[in-house]
Specification:
Elements: H1 7-12, H2 22-29, H3 37-49, H4 53-74, E1 79-83, H5 93-100, E2 105-110, H6 113-117, E3 130-135, H7 141-148, E4 159-163, H8 172-184, E5 191-199, H9 203-213, E6 223-224, H10 225-230, E7 236-237, E8 243-244, E9 262-268
Parallel strand pairs: 1-2, 1-4, 2-3, 4-5, 5-6
Antiparallel strand pairs: 5-9, 7-9, 8-9
Helix pairs in contact: 2-3, 3-9, 4-5
């Protein structure tokens, strides 16, 4: 478990501003300020090929907000394990959950030094609830579970959130194994939320992503809708299943959803 008081100084020394980084580029596309010129240049080069990435980034964030609202508001979930947190922005997991249920408890997990440097923004909590930050890699599920268990009670239903993180695991079987290991530690009534960039929907997106992966930045692997769906094997998908994120329980006031190359779903552990 990271010591928040020590985090900003120690993390800042490890931040590499010479290479574009996906978390900072994502922050740039979301309209944030926690990025560097190298990230803006890479983000602009990406949008020159595929302007729709900005819509994907913002639709992904909106999908996550609707997931958490459903879980906390309709299903009574009070514990959230958010792996691959990314840089803080509007409507972080704890803010959405604790607006509905002030007693909600949230653990964020990331291993990016810049996210760690901003961890204090993720650690504000209502007096009734709790938030914590774990400095760990998604490839270390046992370490994550051990550290998160200091804040969460894994005998109670918990929502596992994997938003745009599994694409960073190149080996699909390894990614599935990690999801299985994490869900095995959670009791019946827990939920799995996943959304990731999808292949086979938009050739321009695939061209831009392939070029990004060759730039020297950490690669992100697009997966087919069937591959994303298979992450939920053995679980009970919440309607409407695995769909383009704009089509997952859209708000009544939202524009007519369109299919974009970002698919996700939510499922319950029986």
């Amino acid at each position: 478990m990271t010591d928040p008081a020590a985090a900003p100084g120690s993390a800042q020394q490890k931040i590499d501003t010479s290479v574009p980084h996906s978390a900072r580029i994502w922050n740039y596309w979301l309209g944030g300020k926690d990025n560097y010129p190298v990230d803006e240049e890479a983000g602009d080069a990406y949008t020159a090929v595929f302007p729709g990435i900005v819509s994907i980034a913002r639709s992904s964030r909106a999908f996550l907000k609707r997931n958490i609202t459903y879980l906390a508001g309709e299903q009574g979930i009070r514990q959230f394990l958010d792996i691959g947190t990314g840089l803080p922005t509007a409507d972080n997991t704890h803010q959405v959950a604790q607006r509905i249920a002030p007693e909600a408890r949230i653990v964020y997990v990331d291993n990016d030094p810049m996210v760690l440097a901003h961890a204090r923004a993720l650690l504000y909590s209502t007096p009734e609830g709790a938030t914590a930050y774990v400095d760990a890699n998604v490839l270390e599920p046992d370490r994550i579970l051990e550290a998160a268990g200091q804040t969460l009670d894994f005998t109670r239903p918990t929502a596992l959130i994997l938003s745009n993180i599994l694409g960073h695991i190149a080996d699909y079987d390894q990614a599935r194994s990690i999801v299985t290991r994490l869900m095995a530690a959670l009791p019946s009534g827990s939920y799995l939320s996943i959304n990731d960039g999808s292949r086979g929907i938009d050739p321009d997106f695939e061209q831009a992503q392939d070029a990004y992966n060759e730039s020297g930045a950490v690669p992100y692997n697009l997966r087919t809708v069937d591959e994303i769906t298979t992450f939920f094997d053995g679980l009970e998908l919440v309607e409407p299943g695995v769909v383009s994120v704009q089509s997952w329980r859209p708000d009544a006031a939202s524009p007519e959803p369109v299919t974009i190359a970002e698919h996700g779903g939510l499922a319950r552990k029986p």
